[in-house]
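Appendix B, record 7
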Amino acid sequence: MSEETNTENSKLSIRLPLIIAVAVVVGIFIGSRMLEPSIDSQNLSSNLSKFKEVLTSIDKNYVDEVESKELVEDAIREMLKKLDPHSRYIPSSEVDLLKSQLIGHYDGIGIQFVVLQDTVYVVKALEGGPSKVLGITTGDKIITVEGENITGINIKSSEVADRLLGPSSTEVSISILRGNEMIDFTIKRGKIPQKSVQTSYMVSAEIGYIKIANFGDKTYIEFKAALDRLKMEGMEKLILDLQGNPGGRMDAAERISDELIGGNRLIVSQKSSHKKYNSSSYAKKEGVFEEGPIVVLVDEKSASASEIVSGALQDHDRALIVGRRTFGKGLVQLPVTLNDNSELMLTIARYYTPSGRSIQKPYTDMDSYFTELSTRYDHGEYFHEDSIKFDDSLRYTTANGRVVYGGGGIMPDHFVPYDTMNYTNYYRDLISSGVLRKFSIDYFVTNRDGLSTMELQAFLNEFTINNVMLKQITDIGEEFGVTKNLSEYEKSLELIKGYAKADIAEFLWNEEGYYRVVNPLSNEVYIQALELFDEATLLAKAYN
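Structure tokens (predicted):
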């Protein structure tokens, strides 16, 4: 979908978006007036009249032609910037993409791909998608889409996606090069599931692990299924990984918390100057894991719904929070669909953890709000716990009297510094240029039959990246312009071997294979969490 442009710049085209914009503002105003009679209607009417005067003057007098839709949309964006960092305008062309991240599916052919040296490689065909059904597989090279060559033309990943995505039930023809054979496919696009629970598995005979990537429409269903399965497999202790989880649907966070918190305890409340948006959510049902010890993993990219879950579990002393201070997003947005199918995401309330703390970080300086994580890094917060200072006026206590703070994210009970010890520029270049991905694809394609007979546990225990494979990696690096730096190569050797192995594991066992390799290799928060279950067990006993 593309936004319309106005080439004639007629008076009607100037006024139509004005009418829409005014209708939106008036609609919000009327909705608020129904329950909030204190709003000054005369002042609002005067401001709307001024806005209309400005647009009318532009229409009649401006020296050049202007895109009226762009003017209105820019005005909306600038207006929202005066409110808070999370009230935002979403053009109609971007609404579907945003919704696909929350509803758990998108329309397409169901592949992951990567562009390496002007060639489009299939990384994997996704379960439940039409490409998987047709037999498209890892290592296939996409040569043409709808008869148009896409190889050797410096094509971008976004341009490939534009050609492959499309409404469900529509068709797209592609030509695949597999080895020396060219194969033509006509693929009927379908709804491709996007799982928000990336993986779940048993770490040991007692410890289960669940990683949630974001909170969408189906997250609770996926989480509950994972929790039930792990319980059946003998889980008595849980690691809930929310690292890098930016949030999403508040109700999904509430329902997941309800599975872990019992006794009609408060999960989260939200408060607004508009009373209609005030509410509180409590644990209602008997959850399937309300007693066993829990460790929650968080970092600086855990936000919003992730903070609702970790905040509720921390305040009730239900879980041990491990990692680094979370992002600090405690504002609630209401989506308002506008007449042209664009959306206004309007902040309507602040949410509060059970102890009463708001974890929303300050946003007086709007320009630096989203770069604040870089400021934390520069100030040493990623590496030293004592660099974090909280205002004592924002001091709160948990159910059992532990001290916690509001006003800037969830501070973990156990701080884990950011681990950069084995990271080097050479290693990063191998990743960013696609060298490791190219090696893993080539190796998998060449050894597919033998690899496919292995069990996951045998692969984890026995498969290694040997010297011959390492030579192939460095050779591909030279081909890709990544020159071997011996000292950096030796420093990052275990990471190079580990991530190449993880890629191959993902081709065979999806995300479970990937994380079963990566977590014990380089996820320091996960590694330390495994050592903290004695403390988590004490919390669980005190909680019950």
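Remarks on this record: The chain has four domains: 11-82, 105-193, 197-415, 425-527. The radius of gyration is 26 Å.
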